[in-house]
Structure formats: structure tokens, C-alpha cells
Write a structure and sequence with these properties.
Elements: H1 10-40, H2 45-72, H3 75-90, H4 92-99, H5 104-132, H6 138-167, H7 169-188, H8 209-221, H9 224-254, H10 259-280, H11 288-303, H12 305-308, H13 314-345, H14 351-379, H15 382-401
Helix pairs in contact: 1-5, 1-6, 1-7, 2-5, 2-8, 2-14, 3-5, 3-7, 4-7, 5-14, 6-7, 6-10, 6-13, 8-14, 9-14, 9-15, 10-13, 11-13, 11-15, 14-15
Length: 420
């Protein structure tokens, strides 16, 4: 690990380590949870849709409140508490499977509770980073985080498929509980970065939670760049909801790929995401907005490879690998730039609420896409549902190109004040 720069910032290094280890475990579970439902409980497309809804609904229901509380409280204790809470919840799945008590209702409940805690962790995580680094370091910081998460993704997916195939899906989920504990330990090592210099309440009064939530929503709506990003994000996340819900069912049940092979293919996405993270910091010289638009267009091309795979043969493998290479690298570049831009634009005292407001629109769109996918997957077909997702991904790229985001040349060094 090279010395200098962000690597000499111990607070950032601990956050980087926590994110890496937690991502590994979470991605093992992301793969193992639906496979638990499919392979052990014979879940239908509708049941997988319900599982996805259970994962997404807490983010939609509690996201705005989470943003308000994250702006009121210190973010480090929130992250530690939610890590430990998620570890305790996750371990109940392999325990129930071992005792013969596991059912779809249990999976739905745990998925919902873990998701609720993840909402608070994720909002706090995105909000604490700007207190650890300078604005001009945000793209680099997010790139390094994404690179580490990409390595974790490659490791998680390549191992998860075989863990599921050899040890069963519930046993694979147990890995996640230990990674959450490790993440909590690393977060605990971060020295308190939230000094009194950050005034969370400039007015001096203590407004209600509803007022805090409204302030965050207004901040997003009144900032043209944030507003444009949200509109494009609605289409993008509708596509994600559609594709994400039927993807495993399509490639496993309809195309015929086994979990082990799929895990190896998914690992390619981790490598391509890593490469995307490595180049993301160099691309803003072409214009942050232009890079974001081009990234979404490339992601659309990559997603189109999935419904083109119709059999578990060499051509099918090549199409799925092509999707992992093109879409994953492009989306990594997009996410690094859009998160960095949002963190730089929003004033520190409302950053939690701005992050939460954006995430709620994302969760809402994914939720709608997920519900639609449960219906369309059974009535219209899995492949046709995937093509609809590809079309919506293209709409997202066009919407972003027509928004003020396209004109953004660089990450601003100071927050852009908005009238709230």
C-alpha cells in the first residue's frame, strides 16, 4: 500500500477497511439469500419479488427519518450499532435452517430488519466521509473505496457460488455476520471526526423531525444539479428493480447456469468494477457531467447482453461476462462521480438529509420496479422483463443528458448553498 495522501489518514483507512470487509460479507448474503429462497424453499418469481420488496421497503419508509437523525447525532456510533445489530439478525438464518424452522416468512422479516439498519448505516457512511477528507479529495476517496469494494465483490461472488453449492446457501450467509462484527471494530477505531466546527443547526433552535425532513427535500429540489440527478435516477432505479428481481431466476432457472458457474461470472464484475474505480479519478478532466452521461449509456449497452444469453453454453457465458465487464465498470464510474458531486454540493449540516432524500427516491423507484417485475416475470416472461429494464436504463441516460448535470465540469471545492 503506497504511503502518502489518503493512506496517511488513519480515519479514512479505518473507514476504507470497514467498508471493504462489510461489502464482502454483504455480497455473499446478497447472492445467498435469494438462492436460499430458490433452492431450499422453491420460491416463485412472485416470492422473490416479495423478498426484494422486504429488502427495499424499509429504505423507502425510513430513509427520510434516518437522514434527519444522522444530521442530529454523531455518525460513528450509528454505524457501530447498526453493524452489530445486523450481525445478530443475519445469524438467525443459518440457525433456523439448521433447526428446520426456516421459511419464506423468516427470510422476509430478516431481510426487512437488516435493510432498516442498513438505511441508517449507509446514510451515516456517506455523510461521515466528507468530515474525513477534503472536498478536492472526494473523488479519489470514493474511487479508493469503490476499488476496494470491487475486489471484495470479485472475492465474494467467486466464493459465494461455490459456498452455496458445497455448503448450502444458509451456511454461506453466516460469513456476513462475522464481517459486520469486523466492520464495527474498524469503525470504532476512527477518531471522532465530527468536531464542534460542524454546525448541524445554524439557526440555534431544535426543529421537529418533520421540519428536518422537509429541509432536506427542499435542498434537493432547489438545487438544479441534484434535481436533475434525481429525475435520471428514477428511471435508472426502475430498471435496476426490474432487472435485479428476475436476473437470478432467468440465468439459473430459464437459461440453466449452476450457482458455482454464476459465482465465477459475477466475480468478473468485481474485477471490471475495480478497473472502473481505478480510472474514475482521471476521467473528470473530460467533464464530470459528460462522464456520468457516457457511463449510463455504456451501462445500458452492458445490460442488453443479459437477455441475449439464451442457453448455458459458451455464447451465453460470453454474453454474461460482457455484461459484467461493460455494465459494472460503467456504473462504478457513474456512482463515484455522482456520490462525490452530491457530497461536495450539499452543506455539511444537511448532508445526511440530502443523502437520505436521494436514497428514498432510489428505493421508491427500485421498489416499484421490483413489484412490477414480480408480475411481469410471471405474466409476460423473464426475458421480456429484462428487455424492459434495458429500455428504462437508456431513458435514464437521456434524462441525465438533458439535465443541468451534463454541464458540470468539475467537483466544486465548497458546498453550494441552497435556499431552504
Amino acid at each position: 500500500m503506497p504511503r502518502g495522501g489518503l493512506w496517511r489518514n488513519p480515519n479514512y483507512v479505518n473507514l476504507w477497511g470497514a467498508a471493504t470487509v462489510s461489502t464482502y460479507g454483504s455480497l455473499v448474503t446478497r447472492t445467498a439469500l435469494p438462492f436460499t429462497a430458490i433452492l431450499l424453499l422453491d420460491a416463485s418469481p412472485f416470492a422473490i419479488s416479495v423478498l426484494r420488496v422486504a429488502e427495499l421497503l424499509p429504505g423507502f419508509l425510513f430513509g427520510l427519518v434516518a437522514g434527519a437523525w444522522v444530521d442530529r447525532l454523531r455518525r460513528k456510533p450509528i454505524m457501530i450499532a447498526t453493524d452489530l445489530g445486523r450481525a445478530l439478525l443475519i445469524v438467525t438464518i443459518p440457525l433456523a435452517a439448521f433447526l428446520g424452522w426456516l421459511g419464506l416468512g423468516h427470510l422476509y422479516l430478516i431481510a426487512a430488519l437488516v435493510s432498516a439498519l442498513s438505511v441508517f448505516f449507509d446514510v451515516a457512511y456517506q455523510s461521515i466521509l466528507p468530515t474525513l477528507v477534503k472536498n478536492e479529495e472526494l473523488v479519489e476517496a470514493n474511487s479508493k473505496l469503490s476499488a476496494a469494494m470491487s475486489v471484495a465483490e470479485a472475492s465474494a461472488f467467486s466464493s459465494a457460488g461455490w459456498l452455496i453449492q458445497l455448503l448450502t446457501a444458509p451456511a454461506a450467509i453466516l460469513v456476513d455476520a462475522f464481517t459486520f462484527i469486523a466492520s464495527a471494530g474498524l469503525v470504532a477505531r476512527i477518531r471522532d471526526p465530527e468536531s464542534s466546527s460542524i454546525d448541524r443547526n445554524p439557526s440555534g433552535s431544535q426543529p421537529s423531525i418533520a421540519s428536518d425532513v422537509a429541509e432536506g427535500l427542499r435542498a434537493v429540489w432547489q438545487q438544479p444539479v441534484l434535481r436533475g440527478r434525481v429525475f435520471a435516477g428514477v428511471a435508472q432505479n426502475l430498471a435496476f428493480g426490474l432487472v435485479g428481481t428476475v436476473f437470478l431466476l432467468y440465468v439459473n432457472q430459464e437459461v440453466g447456469f449452476d450457482p458455482g458457474i454464476l459465482g465465477m461470472i459475477f466475480a468478473v464484475g468485481g474485477v471490471s468494477s475495480f478497473l472502473g474505480a481505478m480510472i474514475a479519478g482521471r476521467l473528470p478532466r473530460f467533464g464530470v457531467g459528460a462522464v456520468m452521461v457516457a457511463s449510463l449509456l455504456l451501462a445500458t449497452v452492458g445490460e442488453a447482453f443479459v437477455p441475449l444469453a439464451t442457453a448455458a453454453n459458451t455464447l451465453g457465458v460470453l454474453f454474461l461476462i460482457g455484461q459484467q465487464i461493460v455494465a459494472d465498470s460503467a456504473l462504478t464510474v457513474y456512482d463515484i462521480n455522482q456520490v462525490s458531486l452530491r457530497q461536495a454540493i450539499a452543506p455539511a449540516h444537511i448532508l445526511g438529509r440530502v443523502n437520505a432524500s436521494v436514497r428514498v427516491t432510489e428505493f421508491g423507484a427500485i421498489l416499484l420496479g421490483t413489484v412490477a417485475a414480480g408480475y411481469l416475470g410471471e405474466v409476460v416472461g423473464l426475458r421480456e422483463t429484462l428487455w424492459l429494464g434495458v429500455a428504462l436504463s437508456f431513458v435514464a441516460a437521456v434524462a441525465l443528458a438533458l439535465s443541468p448535470v451534463r454541464a458540470v465540469r468539475r467537483i466544486p471545492e465548497m458546498p453550494v448553498e441552497v435556499q431552504t
